[in-house]
């Protein structure tokens, strides 16, 4: 006790602003349930596993720790499973995740000799007792940054339901046989609770659903509430009521009265339609989910180094799939595992290692690759019956890598491609002092765009990238005869694909070679300003690669615009061989006899480059229900590339704080700091000023302007590509032969990259392994033809 009293000055009583860690080690994935328990530093309130607490003492000289140990309680074998009443896991009324209950025990430990004192004890100094009680009663920092359970959002009572005025029109709604009043739709029908009009719902992203007649009726009349016919039963709370002004599903506490106004007796109604939430859940049984997750197959579980699963934190499968593949590459393994110990990363970390990306990447790398946490759970998965791993929860890593990012720091599903690019950018910034150690470089390659003007002169523009984003040319499908026969059969029988078995459906099958050929094929550029002709003309652009990376990532653009400008995910197979050769995609540079375009760009050309939204794109987006201003911003920020790109941008930026700020076309003075930033990127000052002026001072748009107007920077960018000499940036990129071997696939299930589920398949030790969150097993049928992202490793010549 005297030893503790002599160190009381090193004990702090936590303030409300303190971040208290008591559920997970900052350097490993040890928890109070680990063999050695968890040690909480009573000065910094950081937590450490038994193997790591001494490192913290050596670094900080903080000697007093609260030791927390959890041991499982004995549970009767005949404990009955409760029937779930809520779409949730691990909460009252949700699915029973069959986890054992634990007993906690505490003690005060003093380092370096691990002297242990019991807690609670009246003999302990009051300061220690207050400090420990405060720690134990506080919400842990890990929990603050995590949604404790995955559950559907509760519907709120609509403010319009309480004051709804219904029109005395004499309309009586029959119990069945409904049809839209404005078209022939007999499904997805909504009854307006003000005037009794029956109209079809919105058109879905995949082209199904209604024809937007219900929402159009609201825009014409401002009648606020509608209920989905076919969802009305004796359980009125389960009915699908939608409030157009609130733009959400709501509760109508007076629904029985509102239905009776139209002669509807809800007690006799039968359920014939799925609610919106049920339709989302129904995705779990479709073909993609079963095939990609290899459901229904008895997967052989795999354990050991490199076969550790990642716990889903709630819509974090995009992160899990991406990180499993990255930590299967030599560059990430070397940087954050084999050549960097946990102790070294901790010694280099700031006072709070939970905020250090290098530390948390090293922690994640050691967690995945050491095999320490690759331990199978004794019981089978309750939902699937598969043997599962406990896995490790990447909470601290997610917190630090998503810091400051509105989307990745949320609990919403995200695009795995966006996360991959975001992470590489973070990793590159974190290694800016030692670029030789930067593992993101292994994914980078040079891209060269050659523009042939109608004058016969050329321009070369270079940039670096780390993905090849490929369009899928459906016209190159190799099973056109089977597709035609299938479509004819479907039309003759009046069948819908969702009513057909998996074996009956025929999907287009496109070779990967055709996708790569589309990337390299010549492309027309209209209204291209030619410095040789002193005016706009049509030019031809061809794209090639100036270097080949160690790891090549191919992104399949499966979200396209269908006829009628309906956004749709392509239901298509891609024939991907195990080995590809992209040697033919290497740039040849400036050729003998080619003449470069002049580098002078007149001021009026800069003024004409002022960003203006394409009205056709804006009109199509507005017709989908988006506001005019939002649609204009989406078109401008995607350089008027197309409706698909604009819609993708819009969906991912709806929560931006400046989304409703009017568009500014101010082009007077530019900020010197922005000019300096562009200069640091390697652009000349004159070009930087022109680009910023043309882009309203936005650095990102200015960079795009420079790349889209290569003549403006010919003296700085194009000359270096007009001969065989490489720029300094190019010479630092990895390079080699063009033969690559497939080693990783990220597959996506769902109607949008921002919903659904992601799974990774990785070639390890000569066999394909599925990484489905915490489930890791031998893959019996890897979905090579259904990938969203494909990862290839360059083969040595």
From TrEMBL:
The active site is at residues 317, 757. Residues 156-266 form the UBP-type domain. Zn(2+) binds at residues 180, 183, 200, 213. It catalyses: Thiol-dependent hydrolysis of ester, thioester, amide, peptide and isopeptide bonds formed by the C-terminal Gly of ubiquitin (a 76-residue protein attached to proteins as an intracellular targeting signal). It holds the Pfam family zf-UBP. GO terms for biological process: cell communication; protein deubiquitination; proteolysis; signaling. SMART domains: UBA (SM00165), ZnF_UBP (SM00290). Keywords: Hydrolase, Metal-binding, Protease, Repeat, Thiol protease, Ubl conjugation pathway, Zinc, Zinc-finger. It comes from the Eukaryota. Residues 716-725 have a biased composition (Low complexity). Its EC number is 3.4.19.12. Residues 612-653, 669-709 form the UBA domain. It is an enzyme of class 3 (hydrolase). Residues 308-795 form the USP domain. The keyword RNA-binding does not apply. Residues 716-735 are annotated as: Disordered. GO terms for molecular function: cysteine-type deubiquitinase activity; zinc ion binding. Gene3D superfamilies: Cysteine proteinases (3.90.70.10), DNA helicase RuvA subunit, C-terminal domain (1.10.8.10), Zinc/RING finger domain, C3HC4 (zinc finger) (3.30.40.10). Belongs to the peptidase C19 family. Recognizes and hydrolyzes the peptide bond at the C-terminal Gly of ubiquitin. Involved in the processing of poly-ubiquitin precursors as well as that of ubiquitinated proteins. This is Ubiquitin carboxyl-terminal hydrolase.
């Amino acid at each position: 006790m005297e030893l503790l009293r002599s160190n009381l000055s090193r004990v702090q009583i936590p303030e409300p602003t303190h971040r208290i860690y008591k559920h997970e080690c900052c350097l490993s994935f040890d928890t109070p349930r680990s063999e050695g328990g968890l040690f909480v530093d009573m000065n910094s309130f950081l937590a450490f596993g038994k193997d790591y607490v001494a490192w913290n003492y050596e670094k900080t000289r903080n000697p007093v720790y609260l030791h927390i140990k959890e041991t499982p309680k004995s549970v009767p074998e005949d404990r009955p499973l409760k029937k779930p009443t809520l779409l949730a896991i691990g909460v009252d009324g949700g699915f029973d995740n069959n986890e054992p209950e634990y007993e906690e025990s505490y003690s005060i430990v003093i380092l370096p000799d691990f002297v242990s004192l019991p807690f609670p004890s009246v003999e302990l100094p009051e300061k220690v007792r207050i400090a420990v009680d405060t720690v134990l009663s506080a919400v842990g920092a890990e929990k603050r940054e995590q949604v404790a359970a995955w559950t559907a959002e509760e519907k709120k009572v609509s403010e319009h339901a309480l004051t709804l005025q219904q029109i005395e029109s004499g309309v009586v709604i029959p119990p069945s046989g409904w049809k839209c009043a404005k078209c022939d739709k007999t499904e997805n029908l909504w009854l307006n609770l003000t005037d009794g009009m029956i109209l079809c719902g919105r058109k879905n992203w995949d082209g199904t659903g209604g024809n937007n007649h219900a929402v159009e009726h609201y825009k014409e009349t401002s009648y606020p509430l509608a209920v989905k016919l076919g969802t009305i039963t004796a359980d009125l709370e389960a009915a699908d009521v939608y409030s157009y002004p609130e733009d959400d599903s709501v509760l109508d506490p007076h629904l029985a009265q509102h239905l009776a106004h139209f002669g509807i007796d809800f007690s006799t109604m039968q359920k014939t339609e799925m609610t919106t939430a049920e339709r989302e859940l129904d995705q779990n049984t479709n073909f993609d989910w079963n095939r990609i997750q290899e459901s229904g197959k008895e997967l052989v579980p795999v354990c050991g180094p490199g076969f550790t699963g990642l716990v889903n934190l709630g819509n974090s499968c995009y992160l899990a799939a991406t990180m499993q593949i990255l930590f299967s590459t030599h560059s990430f393994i070397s940087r954050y595992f084999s050549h960097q110990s946990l102790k070294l990363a901790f010694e280099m970390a700031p006072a709070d290692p939970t905020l250090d990306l290098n530390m948390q990447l090293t922690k994640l790398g050691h967690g995945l690759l050491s095999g320490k946490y690759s331990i199978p759970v004794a019981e089978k998965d309750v939902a699937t019956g598969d043997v599962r791993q406990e896995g490790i929860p990447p909470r601290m890593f997610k917190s630090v890598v998503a810091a400051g990012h509105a989307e990745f720091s949320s609990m919403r599903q995200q695009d795995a491609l966006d996360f991959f690019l975001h992470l590489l950018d973070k990793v590159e910034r974190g290694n800016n002092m030692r670029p030789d150690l930067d593992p993101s470089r292994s994914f980078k390659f040079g891209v060269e765009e050659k523009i042939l003007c109608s004058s016969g002169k050329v321009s070369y523009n270079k940039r670096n990238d780390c993905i090849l984003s490929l369009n899928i040319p459906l016209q190159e499908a190799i099973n056109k005869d089977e597709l035609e026969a299938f479509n004819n059969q479907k039309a003759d029988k009046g069948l819908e694909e969702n009513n057909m078995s998996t074996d009956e459906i025929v999907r287009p099958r496109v070779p990967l070679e055709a996708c790569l050929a589309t990337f390299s094929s010549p492309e027309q550029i209209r209204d291209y300003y030619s410095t040789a002709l002193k005016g706009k003309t049509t030019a031809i652009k061809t794209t090639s690669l100036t270097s080949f990376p160690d790891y090549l990532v191919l992104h399949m653009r499966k979200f396209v615009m269908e006829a009628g400008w309906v956004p749709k995910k392509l239901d298509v197979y891609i024939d991907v061989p195990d080995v590809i050769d992209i040697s033919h995609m290497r740039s040849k540079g400036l050729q003998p006899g080619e003449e470069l375009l002049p580098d002078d760009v007149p001021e009026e050309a800069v003024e004409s480059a002022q960003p203006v939204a394409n009205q056709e794109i804006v009109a199509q987006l507005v017709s989908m229900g988006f506001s005019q201003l939002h649609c204009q911003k989406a078109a401008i920020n995607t350089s008027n590339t197309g409706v698909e790109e604009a819609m993708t941008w819009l969906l991912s930026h709806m929560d931006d704080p400046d989304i409703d700020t009017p568009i500014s076309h101010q082009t007077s003075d530019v900020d010197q700091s922005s000019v300096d930033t562009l200069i640091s990127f390697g652009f000349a000052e004159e070009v930087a000023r022109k680009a910023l002026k043309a882009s309203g001072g936005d650095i990102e748009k200015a960079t795009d302007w420079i790349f889209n107007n290569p003549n403006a920077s010919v003296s700085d960018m194009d000359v270096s590509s007009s001969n065989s000499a490489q720029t300094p940036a190019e010479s630092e990129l990895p390079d080699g032969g063009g033969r690559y071997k497939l080693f990783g696939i990220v597959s996506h299930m769902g109607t949008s990259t921002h919903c659904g589920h992601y799974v990774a398949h990785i070639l390890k030790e000569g066999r394909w392994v599925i990484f489905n969150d915490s489930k890791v097993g031998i893959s019996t049928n890897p979905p090579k033809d259904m990938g969203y992202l494909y990862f290839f490793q360059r083969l040595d010549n």
